[in-house]
Design goal:
The chain is built from 13 helices and twelve strands. By secondary structure, it is α/β, with parallel strands linked by helices. The chain has two domains: 118 residues, Rossmann fold (3-Layer(aba) Sandwich); 182 residues, NAD(P)-binding Rossmann-like Domain (Rossmann fold, 3-Layer(aba) Sandwich). The strands form two sheets. A seven-stranded parallel sheet has the order 8-7-6-9-10-11-12, with helices on both faces. A five-stranded parallel sheet has the order 2-1-3-4-5. Strand 3, helix 3 and strand 4 form a beta-alpha-beta unit. The longest helix has 19 residues. Bound molecules: glyoxylic acid (2 copies). One glyoxylic acid (GLV) binds next to loops. Keywords: NAD, Oxidoreductase.
Amino acid sequence: ERPKILVTQKIPADAYSLLHAIGEVEANMDEGVIWSPEELSRRAPGHDYLLCLLTDTIDARLLGACASASPRLKLVANMAVGYNNIDVEAATRQQIAVSNTPGILSDTTADLAFALLLATARRLPEAERFLRAGKFTGWGPLLFCGAEVHGSTLGIIGAGRIGQLMAKRASGFDMRVLYYNTKCLPADIEDAYQLTYGGLDELLSQSDFVSLHVPYASSTHHLIGERELALMKPSAILVNTARGPVVDEKALVRALQSGQIAGAGLDVFEHEPAVEPELLSMENVVLVPHIASASLKTRARMATMAAENIVAHVQGQRPPNQVNR
Ligand code: GLV
Ligand code: GLV
């Protein structure tokens, strides 16, 4: 019996050949179509392997149904570094492995976080909308003056792989970098990127830019809320490429409306794909649709890595990026 593999969204092409070589592949080939939870629970049971995306909620109920079907589900390979869409504890209880795609998207994600920082500081989308609307009547001394990026202070919340690469980019812009993390980084890493460890409140009150790089978990839910936004400078800009619910989005709207902070660059949203409607009409906010890892090369690597975890399991090896025991 060849293993049965389900791929829940259309993914970069190379990954399919890896999967076709080892199993029977059923795949959603409609680009941009995300299966509803009902559709997923109708289709997933009876597969050995699931290659899924962060848009799929893999909860205890679905895992239970997949564990009692025949064949039984063996591995959920998430094509993402974050796996908060999967109930990993329930998977572990059902002896279902879970894997992610760490490392390969870190630079690409830091690139976009820095792009959002620059775009928000220098008001690029707003200036571009102005030009396209035919309003550019000549160079102006006051036209679209924004915040200075080089030489400013960046606060990095979550100094894992992506946070550290954000610091590396910031050091090229002569920025002072503060970081807050569950633990202090080794001295050689602090030295390499000129990182200074500090408390959350200290970081928030001193930074011109605050960039979030923590995974989402109950401990990071609304890590940035009303209290934290109130600590930030009125000139400060918040950048979020981590997960939407790390920020209390309604509190963020209020802080932006009242001028408590100056702007925000957001790649992720609390109730994605929904966005707080007030944000859509604010000029000082740059909004992109969860594309931090979206370079052609990185997405191809992510799909291949997710597929390789399935291939390893089929071949009787431990999936290299398994996140549970
Ligand atoms: C994207 O958000 C990811 O977790 O890979
Ligand atoms: C601006 O274009 C300048 O020359 O200062």
